[in-house]
Amino acid sequence: MDYALIGGTGIEHFELTDQRVISVETPYGTVEPMIGKLAKHDLVFMSRHGRDHATPPHLVNYRGNIWALRELGVRKIVATAAVGSLSPNHHLGELVLLDQFLDFTKSRPLTFYEGGQQGVLHVDMTEPYCSSVRQVIIEAAKHLGLVVKNGACYVCTEGPRFETPAEIRMFQLLGADLVGMTSVPEAVLARELGMCYASIGMVTNEAAGIADHPLNHAEVMQNLKELEMNVAQLIQTTFELLTPGQKCLCASANAEVGKF
Ligand code: HPA
User: 3-state SS of the chain: helix, strand, coil percent to 5?
Assistant: First the structure.
């Protein structure tokens, strides 16, 4: 199992050939991803919020999920993320690959390396999202004639509430382009275990105070529905083009401490 797809809001289901749910025991509890085949590859599909979207962003078992993927042998992860736009450069309905993040989460375990036996790892985050996997997604988009932008700064908020307009103004000043609630610690944990990780942002709304109306989850879901087909094709073609080796630095990210 070299490859995994982590489906965010709107991508709770993904049709695989020969699919079945399996149970993986992790130090963080039991995780139940789907395995099957996509584009001739064995693939793990994990619905981040659960198949019925029952788990809010701050309660997702990020460590269990990422640990389970590593346990299954995964080296490359493509994730999706519903995002609001803070930037005049990113519009409703766009697909944008994240390339930086700002972390404004508050209550989540952020690392596998808790000291003691596990050691301490200050993992490098110069390039938080794997540029090699992003490049393959861009190639896939070209094959399909889809416009996918490569590069945006994502601010991760704790949620589950949406932001205040004052927060959004602050995030704009700090250089954020897109806002969501899940990419941290997911991207960090994948890096800690040496896996490549890229995330496709799906712009579902203008952020609070930019939109001329209050935000609601129904609007986000409706706009995701319109993006679903394109994203499914993009994911399928990306996995057709991905190759197993890791020529990037992701694989050696924990070399200083090792352990896992
Ligand atoms: N804020 C936070 N998370 C989100 C948003 C938003 O505006 N839209 C989709 N996920």
Answer: 30, 25, 45
Q: What is the mean pLDDT of residues 171-186?
A: 98
For residue 179, report the distance from its CA to the centre of ligand 1, in Å. Answer: 5
Above pLDDT 70, what percent of the chain?
Answer: 100
> Which pair of structure tokens corresponds to residue 86?
């803070």
Pocket test of ligand 1: the residue of 220, 221, 224 to mutate, having most ligand atoms within 8 Å of its CB, is 220
- pLDDT category, 181, cuts 50, 70, 90? very high
Structurally, the chain folds into a number of domains equal to 1
Pairing of the two strands 196-206 and 76-85: parallel
Boundaries of domain holding 181? 3-257
CA atoms within 13 A on the CB side of 118: 12
> What is the domain-level CATH number for residue 82?
3.40.50.1580
Q: How far is the CA of 147 from the centre of ligand 1 (A)?
A: 21
Rounded distance from Cα 170 to ligand 1 centre (Å)? 15
**Beta strands at 196-206 and 95-97: parallel, antiparallel or unpaired:** antiparallel
For residue 208, give the ligand 1 atom closest to its CA.
7
What's the rounded mean pLDDT across residues 50-69?
Answer: 92
Q: What is the mean pLDDT of residues 84-92?
A: 96
pTM greater than 0.70 (yes/no): yes
